[in-house]
Structure formats: C-alpha cells, structure tokens
Automatic annotation (TrEMBL):
Keyword Transmembrane helix: yes
A matching Pfam family: Na_Ala_symp
A Gene Ontology cellular-component term: plasma membrane
Keyword Protein transport listed: no
Family recorded in the similarity comment: Belongs to the alanine or glycine:cation symporter (AGCS) (TC 2.A.25) family.
Membrane topology: Multi-pass membrane protein
Name of the molecule in the record: Sodium:alanine symporter
Highest rank taxon of the organism: Bacteria
Range of residues in the leader sequence: none
Keywords tagged on the record: Cell membrane, Membrane, Symport, Transmembrane, Transmembrane helix, Transport
Subcellular location: Cell membrane
Main subcellular location of this protein, as a coarse class: membrane
Annotated PANTHER family: AGSS FAMILY TRANSPORTER, SODIUM-ALANINE, TRANSCRIPTIONAL REGULATOR, LRP FAMILY
C-alpha cells in the first residue's frame, strides 16, 4: 500500500509539473490573443465596472450582487496558498518565482474571464428560482456534450471530499497548535457553523462572504502594509531581488539552497495557478449567480478577483517574507510552510504570529464554506436539488473526519483529481472561444453597454 501511495504522489508531481503548466500557459496565451489582450487594454474601465461600482445598484437579473459573487469566488481562492504557498515558491524557486506568479496571473485573467462569461451566458434557474451555472452547463448547452459536463461534475463532486478533509485538518491543526483546543471539537464546531450558512444557499453565503473577505483582506494585507511603510527603503531591493532572479538561476544565500531557472519558472507558475484557480472552472459557479445585464460585465469581476488574490495578497506575503530575511535562515527550506508566520513575528512579536494564525483560520473557513456550495451545485446538476442537500451532509461529515487526520491517506490523489477537472474545462473553454469572442465583441460595440458607459464620462 505504501509503495502504491508513493507511486500516486510521484505521478501527481510529474503531472502538475511541466505537462499541465504547459497546457495552462498555452490556453491562457491563446485566449489572451483571441480576446485582443482585454486585460491589458481596458484596466481602468474594468476597475470602474468592478470596485468602482460596489455601491451602485446592480443592472440586470440574478440571485446575488456582483460584489457578493466576487467575494464568494474569492473565498475559494484566497486561502492557505496565499500564506503558505508563496514562501514555498520562494524557497524552492527563489525570489524570481514571484515574478512568474505575476506573469501567470496576468495571462490567467483571460481564462477566468472566459469561464465566467460562459457561465453567465449559459446559466439557468433551478427549482428554487436561483440562477445556477458553471462548466457543466456550458459543456451541456454550449457544446452539446453533456457527457463532458457529467465527467466534470462527478470528478469535482468527489474531489471536494478529500479537499474539504484537508482544509478541515489544516484549520483544526492551526487552532490546536495556537489555542490548545482539541481537533475534534474544532471539527464539530466548524461543521455546525458552516452547515448553518451553506443550507441558506448562495444568498446567505454571499451575505457572509461580503463581510468576511474584505475583513480578512484588510487585516492581513493591512499588517503587510504596516511592514511596508516601516521598510519603504527596502522596496527597491525587493523588486531587484525578484527581477534579477526571474531570468537567471537563484544563487545560494544563507540557508537558501539556490534554484535552477527551470525551477524558478515552474514554482512561480504552479503556486500562482494554485492560488487563483484560473482554468479550474470553480469560480464561474459563483459568478453565474450574479445580477448582471451582460455576461462580459460580470466576467470583469473575475479579472478583479485575480488582482486581489495574486497581485495584492500574494505580493504582500512575498514582501514580508523577503524583506524580513527569514527565507535565508538556517532551517528555512525545511520549514517553508511557517515562514510567513515567522516573518510577521520578526516584525510584530507574538502579535504577528496571532495575526497570521487568525488570518489563516478565516481564510480556510471561508474556503470550506464556498467549496461545499460548489459541490452541492454538482450534485444538483447530476441528480437534482434534493441530492444537493444530501451531499452537503457528506461534506460536513468530511470536515469532522478531516479534523482528526483521516485525510492523510488520500492526500496524494488530490492533484490527480484536480487534473480530471481542469482538462475537461480547458477543452470546453477553447472549443467555445469563438462564443467568448462574440460576447466580448457584442459588449464593446453595443450602445447598451460599453459605448453607453463611456459616454457618461
């Protein structure tokens, strides 16, 4: 059994090395070119249509506000990857890996834009009158390939069980280590809290996340900004470290063992993709429920999501880790997952450690909250609305089992199952790329949308 699990882990590592990174890179570049470099040509307009319209009444019909849809989607992506994943990329790929995280974030915007536009365009109403959508719907209605939608849905529904167990384990371990509360108690408490929220549907989830996510981001990024202002003189050195190592092997520095150029790029791309989930097809399920008058207008929010997740939060983590110098410490390579905590602690003492711990707890809790919603949508698509309630009980039980360490045996399968979701979704997005281009052209040439907006200036 042990040999089998080692084989699974080895295959998973190879799969999520160059093969899938190359596929994602190609898909992102293809959609960026196909859509006329939309994320680079209209950044100010996109900002105005997203963060600039938070307090305006949403246009069109939908179940939740566009901002609630964004915060729900961000709840899934903003998590442990932002706190633990960034220092891992730095330790195994060097400071230059941060540059490649930025690159894949910018390219990935076109994929996430495409997914969300398709999700809104092909969405429908369920028995409760709520808007539902996502890859399984655009595979079925857009491509006429229901079998592909079933493949995606079934794979995601199953993948979320060990994923939730891992998240539950991460949360309970953090609480036990920091506050000495038994893991089982934490697991039960989290399952009860999450259950109360998720059974309220996307409306209640949206109401919670629109408070949760800004609070989490303000606390964590706020702490990083304080450190930035304390060390403004280190900003040139920060960027110099990143850019000078982005295109060359990272040299040995203190406890940092150095990295070849291929590792610099690979780790930057891999951690960036893990963080923002571009191409996985999960975030579009949240965006599909949003009030909007056109799919493209809501798709702008998915671009905004990558800005927050990778360009802001991951960069904040990178600055704290690099400016503190903890990445060159003697045991940094063996203790990469704790580097962010150590870095904050070096600036703020015990308060810094508590700040990171509390942030991680909120990040993981919100992730569990939203991925249970995603799983319920798969069960609803496959078997109907009643099945979505049943699977939610399975997911809540998974939190408790995960809290006491039951997920360890199946951790190695997680990445393989993620690939089983990613590949069909990328196939669908590429096959429907003409539809995305058509929707984008319609929005930017119609007097009802873009042209009307710019005349209001």
């Amino acid at each position: 059994m042990e040999g089998f699990l080692e084989g699974v882990a080895s295959f998973s590592e190879q799969l999520w090395g160059y093969p899938l990174i190359a596929i994602l890179l190609f898909s992102g570049i293809f959609m960026t070119v196909k859509l006329g470099f939309i994320q680079f040509r209209h950044p100010i307009y996109i900002f105005k249509q997203t963060f600039g319209s938070i307090f305006k009444k949403p246009k069109g019909e939908g179940t939740v506000t566009p901002f609630q849809a964004l915060t729900s989607a961000l709840s899934s992506t903003v998590g442990a990857a932002n706190i633990v994943g960034v220092p891992a990329a730095i330790m195994f790929g060097g400071p230059g890996a941060v540059f490649w995280m930025w690159v894949i974030a910018l390219i990935g915007m076109s994929l996430k834009f495409s997914e969300s536009a398709l999700a809104v365009h092909y969405r429908e109403k369920n028995e409760k009158g709520e808007f539902v959508g996502g890859p399984m719907y655009y595979m079925t209605k857009g491509l006429g390939m229901k079998w592909l939608g079933i493949w995606f849905s079934f794979a995601l529904m199953l993948e979320l069980i060990p994923s939730i167990m891992v998240q539950g384990n991460s949360l309970s371990s953090t609480v036990e280590e920091s506050f000495n509360i038994p893991a089982l108690w934490t697991g039960i408490a989290v399952a009860v809290i999450v259950g109360i929220i998720v059974f309220g549907g996307i409306k209640r989830i949206g109401q919670v996340t629109q408070v949760f996510i800004p609070f989490m981001a303000l606390v964590y990024v706020g702490g990083a900004l304080v450190i930035l202002f304390m060390n403004l003189n280190m900003l040139p050195e920060f960027f110099n470290l990143i850019f000078s190592n982005a295109f060359s092997p990272a040299p040995v520095v203190g406890g940092f063992a150095g990295a070849a150029i291929v590792d610099v790029i690979r780790w930057g791309f891999a951690r960036g993709l893990y963080s923002n989930e571009a191409g996985l097809g999960t975030a579009p399920m949240a965006h599909a429920a949003a009030q909007t008058d056109h799919p493209v207008r809501q798709a702008f929010w998915s671009i905004a999501g990558i800005v927050v997740d990778t360009l802001v939060i991951c960069t904040a983590t990178a600055f704290v880790v690099l400016s503190s110098g903890v990445w060159t410490g003697e045991n940094a390579m063996e203790n990469s997952s704790a580097l962010t905590t150590i870095a904050f602690e070096s600036y703020f003492g015990t308060f810094g450690s508590i700040l990171v711990t509390v942030s991680l707890i909120f990040f993981v809790l919100s992730t569990i909250l939203v991925i249970i919603f995603y799983g319920a949508k798969q069960a609803e698509f496959l078997f109907g609305l009643k099945a979505s309630y049943a699977i939610q009980f399975v997911y809540l039980a998974a939190i408790v089992f995960g809290a006491v360490g039951a997920a360890e045996v199946i951790w190695g399968f997680l990445d393989i199952m993620l690939a089983a979701i990613l590949i069909p979704n990328l196939i669908a997005v590429l096959l429907l790329s003409n539809k995305v281009k058509e929707l984008k052209h319609e929005f930017f040439t119609s007097d009802e949308y873009y042209l009307k907006d710019i005349r209001k200036k």
